[in-house]
Design brief:
Elements: H1 3-19, E1 31-39, H2 45-59, E2 64-67, E3 82-89, H3 91-105, E4 111-113, E5 116-119, H4 126-129, H5 132-135, E6 141-147, H6 152-161
Antiparallel strand pairs: 1-3, 1-6, 2-3, 4-5, 5-6
Amino acid sequence: MNFIENYYKNIIKYDLLNRFQYKNLKKLPQLKNIILSFSCKNSNTNQIMPSLLALELIASQKSLLTLSKNSNISLKIRKGNPVGCKVVLKKKVMYNFLKNLILNILPNQVKFKKNSLILKNSLVFSELEQQYYLFKDIPKLNISLVCNSINSFELFFLLNSLKLAGSKKSL
């Protein structure tokens, strides 16, 4: 068992029970999955393919292309063209990525918005830094955290307990 998962089960659940009142223990907020995605401004394969490869190196899992659902004349994107790529992390892979994020990436630069982290420089991952010439032009990496919290206080408490959010609000 990963130490982040162990920390959640033994400490964060206990803190949530003391902080909020729950009638059912199955309704405790928990992290369901993490979505990593790159969104490219155009459907140029020179920009999409390195992003796809970068996601596979970061997540150790196969990534998927994101296709446009409708055409946009101003951006010169046709319906069905690739506009980005994403990968969904669950269970052990999610906790391994979270451990890497907390220990190696967060001490570096990270911007936090609502339930999404944005890495401006994706080369903070050691997997990508070793092959700089391939990944020097990839776009920003979006890291979305999916959880089952009911309100924003629970979400913020969970993220703060996992050391993912700065202490912007006082609880």
